[in-house]
Amino acid sequence: MSGSAVIGIDIGGTNVRVGAVTLEGRLLCARDAPIAARQGPQAGLERITALIEQVVSTARVSLLGIGIGSTGPVDRQLGAIQNPYTLPTWENVDIASPLRGHFGVPVTLENDGDVAALGESWLGAGRGLSRLLMVTVGTGIGIGYIVDGRIFRGTAGIHPEGGHIPVDPSGPLCYCGAHGCWESLASGTAIGAYARELALSQPTALGSDPEQIDARRVAEAARAGDPLAIRVMQRGGLYLGLGLVTNLHLYLPDCVIFTGGVMHSYDLFEAGLRDTIRRCSVMSPLDRIPLRMAALGQQAGIFGAARAAMIEAGS
Amino acid sequence: MSGSAVIGIDIGGTNVRVGAVTLEGRLLCARDAPIAARQGPQAGLERITALIEQVVSTARVSLLGIGIGSTGPVDRQLGAIQNPYTLPTWENVDIASPLRGHFGVPVTLENDGDVAALGESWLGAGRGLSRLLMVTVGTGIGIGYIVDGRIFRGTAGIHPEGGHIPVDPSGPLCYCGAHGCWESLASGTAIGAYARELALSQPTALGSDPEQIDARRVAEAARAGDPLAIRVMQRGGLYLGLGLVTNLHLYLPDCVIFTGGVMHSYDLFEAGLRDTIRRCSVMSPLDRIPLRMAALGQQAGIFGAARAAMIEAGS
């Protein structure tokens, strides 16, 4: 044994990542594997257990606790993942009890957006700041808000679904029940859908085969100068800005950290985004809040999940 | 002397109210007077000083501190009111230093929405709750958010301007810089303006004289069955609901407390408001968050201002 560590686990729709993190924030060892959700939660749990055992024995540490950040929704109190959407078959799966039983340490379960924000706040782009808002723009839009090193939670301890704030009532109906929520207008899915709609009736380098059009291709075509793709990205930037202005008004963070696949195209959004924020900064200095990119990449989840377990244990 | 008390002061656009409040939250004595802002801040300060002296001598207490809630914006650090909008001539007026000098006690300055929320959280409709969102709908829309008995503040300690979140980009341009912010669509001013616009071209019991049409008259006409007024109030309720859904998603309070003149017509909005919230509760149980009316009336400001001073002093 070379010391002690906390295990951080990041469960996504595709992969699960497991790492051993010291109390000082050093990553000793990490492993990942496909989550293969369709094989069922029992197989997934066995895979996660094996990864933890590998990491602990490779790092040669004694295990203090386990923190998990999972693609939501999760029930923190029950330690259960309630997510048949991006983890098919994982509905009401108690993940905390079996791991607690097997390893004999406390297990903490959190939303993945919250732990990524916690990781960036602890060791990444938000280090040293009191109020950190992390915005993930990918297939959907999610947020995590960290205040004084703690996850901001709402009534009954629930996680704010910031991607589903209404932004334009003339927008499309989302599964959340709102017309024109932020996610339905500015996520990667929304960008792809709007481009496919326009491509049906207008010439574009994207072609008109809907299966070939997604947010990544739209960004590439916009970079190559395709007018339709440019329009789609500008609209995305405008709506990204409107939803962000609302988040800035209510949370007033010291800094915003962006992450997620769509944010690889940040340069295409930036002018529109900053212009929208500037326009809306009469009442509060929203335009002075720095916008940064995440610094920890895929490790944010491992660090943040480990940190969540440390906080739960009071260390 | 019968004990000690903190002075709470509520400065509005029309009146200033001053009260002596014990540490246990008992109001010993209160006085008010017109603020008469146009006579200048020096006259106002003298009036406030005289009211404090009256209250202290009537209550026969020793003075522990002074808390002020003022119609915003205020600079808490400087103790200065920056408000030429609803307090004409009161621009960059240092109110804390002269009162501190005269009375020899600490002086705390806060935004009026924040102290009203703090008062309701301490002694009113939000008593005993961890997270309280207060929404004031009157001439404008303002919010105050209290978490664990403390005012929620943003970066640099500033107050969230929740009335200016963008709600419908096809809405009117507001002085805040946004099109269709919450205040521009659901405040009393917005309700009056929309009714005046419709009344130009459509028959209504409101008549067509714009000077005779304001939110209060629209509410009366809606109650009397005027179709145009009913439509205007329904639209107000819809937008009130959309902005509220956003606040609920991000703050996830244990309870919402409404106050302000427009909320005297709450019965006319309620169905539309609850329907909007219900529709948008798929991702988070927003429809389970209780909506209540404020309980302290005009005394919320005095109690909250006194409480702010107590918190500042650590008592």
- Provide the low-confidence segments of chain A as ranges: none
Q: How helical, in percent, are the residues of chain A?
A: 25-40%
The CATH topology of the largest domain in chain A comes to Nucleotidyltransferase, domain 5
CATH class of the largest domain in chain A: Alpha Beta
Number of strands of chain A: 13
Strand content of chain A: 15-25%
Largest sheet of chain A: 5 strands, mixed
In sequence order, what are the helices and strands of chain A, one letter per element?
EEEHEEEEHEHEEEHHHHEHEH
The CATH H-level homologous superfamily of the largest domain in chain A? ATPase, nucleotide binding domain
| Oligomer type | homodimer
CATH architecture of the largest domain in chain A: 2-Layer Sandwich
The number of helical segments of chain A is 9
Q: Please, what is the average pLDDT of chain A?
A: 94
The most extensive interface between chains reads:
A-B, 40 and 40 residues
Number of structurally distinct domains of chain A: 2
Structural overview:
The structure is a homodimer of 315-residue chains. Chain A is 37% helix and 21% strand. The first copy, chain A, is an alpha/beta fold. Chain A has two domains: 4-119 and 298-312, Nucleotidyltransferase, domain 5; 129-293, Nucleotidyltransferase, domain 5 (2-Layer Sandwich). Chain A has a five-stranded mixed β-sheet with strand order 3-2-1-4-8. In chain A, β5 and β6 (80-81) form a beta hairpin. In chain A, α3 (112-123) packs across α9 (299-312), α5 (188-199) packs across α6 (215-223) and α7 (227-251) packs across α8 (266-279). The mean pLDDT of chain A is 94. Chains A and B meet through α7 of A and α7 of B.
